[in-house]
Amino acid sequence: MKFMSNVIALSAFAMVAACNSPAAEKVEDAAENQADALENQADVLDEQADNATGATENALENQADALENQADAVREEGENKADAINANSN
Length: 90
Hints:
Elements: H1 2-19, H2 22-50, H3 54-89
Keywords: Coiled coil, Signal
Protein name: Lipoprotein
């Protein structure tokens, strides 16, 4: 059952991706790359937090959480911009 829902989700994603204009794809890809970089920074901070103690650990974990939230916001903004480009190109 899980396999089937994964296949359905992948098919839906492929159909949506096929509808995107090249400009929308570039915007979405750029946002995805920026979000990935932010998540990588968050991972580094998480690793540093694992090696720290007390207030330092908490501060690093909070910074990592903030970067992950920023990555999510960048991704969402990229998707919204891509959607707007697609809506204007139709």
